[in-house]
Write a structure and sequence with these properties.
Blueprint lengths: L1 H16 L22 H28 L2 H4 L2 H17 L2 H9 L10 H34 L11 H18 L1 H5 L1 E4 L6 E4 L4 H36 L6 H40 L6 H19 L1 H12 L1 H15 L3 H14 L6
Antiparallel strand pairs: 1-2
Length: 360
């Protein structure tokens, strides 16, 4: 009996030491030995720092290029682009915290402000997740209005209405992120503090499942409907287009926005799938084998890293697919070099006469 007790004690300590719950921002608790992904304390910090540097510089570059034209020279879609870049910029600022935690095998050791940093960083990640999909949904609906309902959408596509829409997206995202603040905290197991969510709360699990439906499945369905309608409309009216150049600009605009949406869905779809599977198994109190738990945990970890890459992909899409963005970047570069204003004015005029690629 004593030997069995000692075995249970050693087994408990062993499993507790390998949980590594705080090494990535969407962690859940697993109890089986061997569920820890080998090398995560090395490759996770590298990935987090890589996403941090590329996302910070890339989104700061987007804000500098798109924002320099101001309200008069900018395009309507630029308002969504700036807000999307701002959300990603704030998000990547939290990644150094998770990189440090991952390098310490998930220990969240930030002293007296550790719990505050845990809640704040988790809250920012949740707000970024919601605001991204909402802004992308708004951009899709804007493309729908620009192509299918161009003559009937002058008010909806006005600068004032788009700014009000962005404000509503931010307020909604800030409110929807509150559960991440409330149910995320630093817990103190015997082997050290970890920043984890309260997966024992059925209220939080239910809210998380509802959020996955409301903030991913439904927006993606709206995006699919918008683009399906756009494709049908373009195919029907392509031959009768009165202005081939305008039609070409619309198609180029759709290609850029669609690329951004595909990048987001590809990045976040695996995470949402694993998250929903884990939540359902926890709500149903399913008894999973250690292999199944290891598959869930490692899948969530890898998909979480993939999801974060979406924050640094958008600047590359703008640069390679948006001719207007490249022209504005060139003007900004020439301004920094002190290029004569006359030549800059010529470039700006050429940019205007060639027309923007993301605004019909």
């Amino acid at each position: 009996m004593d030997a069995y007790t000692d075995y249970q004690y050693d087994y408990h300590n062993y499993t507790e030491n390998i949980l590594d719950n705080g090494s990535f921002p969407f962690s859940v608790i697993f109890d089986c030995p061997g569920s820890h992904l080998q090398g995560s304390s090395t490759f996770l910090p590298v990935l987090y720092y890589l996403i941090f540097f590329t996302g910070f510089l890339g989104n700061l570059f987007v804000i500098s290029v798109v924002g320099r034209k101001g309200r008069k020279g900018g395009r309507l879609v630029d308002t969504f682009v700036i807000n999307l870049a701002l959300a990603d910029l704030v998000f990547v600022l939290t990644l150094p915290l998770w990189a440090v935690s991952a390098s310490q095998n998930g220990y969240w050791d930030f002293g007296a402000i550790g719990n505050l940093l845990c809640k704040l960083s988790s809250y920012i990640i949740a707000v970024n997740r919601f605001s991204n999909i909402f802004f992308l949904t708004c951009m899709s609906f804007d493309r729908y209005l620009a192509v299918v309902k161009l003559m009937d959408s002058r008010y909806l596509r006005s600068s004032r209405c788009i700014q009000a829409t962005c404000a509503a997206v931010w307020v909604s995202s800030l409110l929807l992120g509150i559960p991440s603040w409330v149910y995320r905290s630093v817990q103190q197991p015997s082997d050290g503090p970890s920043c984890v969510e309260d997966s024992s709360s059925y209220v939080f699990l239910g809210i998380s499942l509802l959020m996955a439906l409301l903030t991913f499945v439904f927006p993606v369905l709206i995006i699919i409907i918008c683009y399906g309608t756009i494709i049908v409309h373009l195919n029907k009216h392509c031959a009768a287009a009165a202005n081939p150049r305008a039609e070409a600009r619309r198609r180029h605009s759709l290609k850029m926005v669609l690329s951004i949406i595909i990048a987001f869905v590809v990045s976040w779809l695996p995470f949402n799938i694993f998250k929903v599977i884990i939540i359902i198994s926890q709500l149903s109190n399913a008894e999973l084998s250690c292999d199944a738990q290891a598959w869930q945990r490692n899948g969530l970890l890898v998909s979480c890293c993939l999801a974060f890459f979406s924050s640094c992909v958008n600047p590359a899409i703008y640069f390679f697919l948006d001719n207007h963005f490249r022209r504005q970047a060139e003007i900004l570069f020439n301004t920094c070099r002190g290029k004569p204003k006359l030549l800059q004015s010529y470039n700006s005029s050429a940019s205007f006469t060639n027309a923007g690629t993301t605004e019909s």
